[in-house]
Write a structure and sequence with these properties.
This protein is mainly α. The protein has six helices and two strands. The chain has a two-stranded antiparallel ribbon. A hairpin with an 8-residue loop joins strand 1 and strand 2. The chain is elongated and about 65 Å long.
């Protein structure tokens, strides 16, 4: 039988200084980690500092106390996690494209010889060694 997760426990986990803090939910349910809580909270209303609003703690508790074992919440929670996975893939794609565009610009700058490698490294906030790695297509 699962242990019911209270809003007090959720707030304590949220505020816990240890990144490895968890809430034990019994033998048949996985513990709730800070990452799980953050994933669930990403779809909630928060204040300017990212802290869930007062009425949102009950929403988190309802998600964590749903009947679905091995999952953080109801079907809506599963949809939320699918959205997170999709957003992560899109973020990774955008970052990859931006990195490639940036690296192309660095290669062009080095090849143009209009600025020294030292100046290019300073402008890019990178080491000279990294600029040479980019130039040569390494890593």
């Amino acid at each position: 039988m699962a242990t019911v997760v209270t809003t007090k426990q959720i707030r304590a986990l949220w505020d816990a200084p240890s990144p490895n803090a968890t809430i034990d939910r019994g033998d048949h349910y996985p513990p709730v980690t800070k990452d799980d809580l953050g994933a669930l909270a990403s779809g909630l209303d928060t204040d300017d500092e990212g802290y869930p609003l007062d009425d949102q703690w009950d929403v988190l508790a309802a998600q964590l106390n749903s009947e679905a074992p091995d999952g953080p919440g109801s079907a809506a929670g599963g949809d939320l996690l699918d959205e997170i996975r999709t957003a992560r893939k899109e973020r990774d794609r955008i970052k990859s494209d931006a990195d490639e565009d940036f690296n192309t610009l660095i290669r062009s700058a080095v090849a143009s010889k209009q600025a020294s490698v030292i100046a290019i490294a300073e402008a890019a906030a990178m080491s000279r060694a990294r600029i040479y790695q980019i130039r040569d297509g390494r890593r």
